[in-house]
Amino acid sequence: MAGKDWYEAFSQNMNPIFTKKDFENYKKGVLKDLKYYEKYIPKGSKILDVGCGLGCEAIPLSSLGYKVIGVDNDKRVVEAANQNSKNFGGDVQIIEGDIFNLDELFDKDSFDACISGGVLEHFKKEDVRKLVDLQLKLAPLVIANMPVKTKKSMKAYGFTESNALNNLDNNGIYRNFWSEDEWVNKVLKDYNIVEHFVKPCDPSIGNFDVVYLFIKRKVVLSKE
User: Any idea which architecture 6-156+193-216 has in CATH?
Assistant: First the structure.
């Protein structure tokens, strides 16, 4: 993932600066998932969107009553996201930063939840676990969604069973295609995953399947 020009990658498939139609489409997608968010984090909660990109999720969430901070490591992406926030957002701020240094950017328990969409699959297993650990320091709940290994997803990203081993999709981006079972029982084995499921991605984002993971911080009982 390092060194990839994300602004150019986003620009190939979407408008970096949202049109009104773009924003309404992204908001409709977020509204479809709102029941999952509200089950764990009520409106008014403070959310960190890790690797927020152009703000497709952060900005609609902010307009729906959440207090959102987004962080991304690409300066041009951050600039575009802040413009999108200015045009369409509510209580949202987008900052530039390395998601592997989240604990240097924010204090412990700064948020009610950390979320990410289409981020974790770009890293190897050990780095995925490091990112989840960092987020669980900042919030008691992590909600992550990413493309999952299904026939639809493989086709959407130009993978076959034979070429998937090189982990490069049709845009030359490093991407792991793990199944739901692999995410839950291998990559994030021993984490407190309280809910997980697979559903089709909203058409405003793409034509693939995503896995949702809801991970709670483990409660450590003190010895008396």
Answer: 3-Layer(aba) Sandwich (3.40)
How many C-beta neighbours within 10 Å does residue 219 have?
Answer: 7
Q: pLDDT digit string (tens) for 19-77?
A: 999 999 999 999 999 999 999 999 999 999 999 999 999 999 999 999 999 999 999 99
Using DSSP's 3-state secondary structure scheme, residue 44 falls into coil
Q: Pairing state of beta strands 141-147 and 209-216?
A: antiparallel
Cβ burial, residue 42 (10 Å; 0-12/13-18/19+)? exposed
Please report, for the chain, the start and end positions of each structural domain, with discontinuous segments joined by +: 6-156+193-216
CB atoms within 10 A of CB 54: 29
pTM given for the model: 0.91
